[in-house]
Amino acid sequence: MAGPKQVVAMKNLVDIDGDMGFRFTEMEEKKLAEEFRFGLVLKFLTVRPNIDTIRLTINKTWGLREVPMVSFMDSKHVLVQLRNEVDYIHTWAREGRTKAGGNFRLFKWTPDFDLSSESPLAPQWIFLP
């Protein structure tokens, strides 16, 4: 299995207002954000299950074509990077919002996604006759 492709050149750590970090150009930020275009965030409302339970449940029950990358963002948020548009649409349109015994809200990842506030981007169900 190949490692992740390098989207932008390696960066050296720099001091940014007293914290260590990286500086990117606007073009580099756009390239990096493109890698997350099929990213969805699960925000668990109470206790977040462990990562292995979340991965196993997603792989066994979501009916995806490809295995997504699942990673923690913080104590309540999990990033699910889907591998293709079909899986992304299928997952974004899901009605069920329970995973491994934990209820969650589903949000679309965006470059300005803020873990401390609720995203205004959420799926809406419209039933037509």
TrEMBL record:
Coiled coil: none
Leader sequence residues: none
Domain DUF4283: 33-116
Tree of life domain: Eukaryota
Protein name (record): DUF4283 domain-containing protein
Stored Pfam families: DUF4283
InterPro entries xref list: At4g02000-like, DUF4283
